[in-house]
Amino acid sequence: NKKGSDLCEPTNLTTQVLEHYITKYDLKRLDLYCKNLADYHLIMDLLPSISRMFFLNQLGDTKLSAVQAAILLGIGMQHKTVDVLSKELELVPTQLLGLFNKIIRKLYQVFMSTTEHAIEESLGLKDQPDVPFVPKQIGQGLMEELESADRSIKKKQKLELERLKEDFEIKGSDEAWDEALKSGGNTILSIRSKRPISDKSNKFDFEPPKKKKKSFHKKGGKK
């Protein structure tokens, strides 16, 4: 007698078959369970559909061990609880749940692989060669931009420093300054600036407007 999984020829899983049984929301729930972010009760309603795809050989060459197939059959098709199935298979419930987790992880990878291939085909990326990622080139470009910005800042700082030196130049030699500082008293120290000082006064002369004289014309008398 042939096993139930050998009654149908294995066929590769297609997106049409997958979407008939599993929705995108269901894939998200499976993902949470595979990452240990959700309990197995969250995906129990998906087990009949998943079991059907497996035992109808709609998952390609995906293989499970005899114990794993028995667990999937008992929970997915016969709707047995973990406690009942663990007694029948003579397994500790935690051990059975560990094997169940491995089953779901393996089948979830098949589902995601099918989905990814379908997306690649829709985008026309399936037959294109992979372009190697070279982070070194990006790093060099970034370093060149930083070095260019640094040179520009240093150049501006140098020009500003030279301008300040030209604007504010201290008059007198070192000997003259030493002598002036030693003499003490009411010594006036002066700083010469090269900036031109405007001689214009801040005062404004306002000349009042001249009043125009009114001219009066005498009217002629009546004749």
From TrEMBL:
UniProt GO MF annotations: 18S rRNA cytidine N-acetyltransferase activity; tRNA binding
Q: Which InterPro entries match?
A: TmcA/NAT10/Kre33, tRNA_bind_dom
Composition-biased stretches (Basic residues): 210-223
Task: State the UniProt keywords alphabetically.
Answer: Transferase
The record's section on Pfam families has: tRNA_bind_2
Which residue ranges are recorded for the region named Disordered? 192-223
Annotated GO biological processes are: rRNA acetylation involved in maturation of SSU-rRNA
Entry protein name: N-acetyltransferase 10
The organism is: Lygus hesperus (Western plant bug)
What gene does this protein come from? Nat10_1
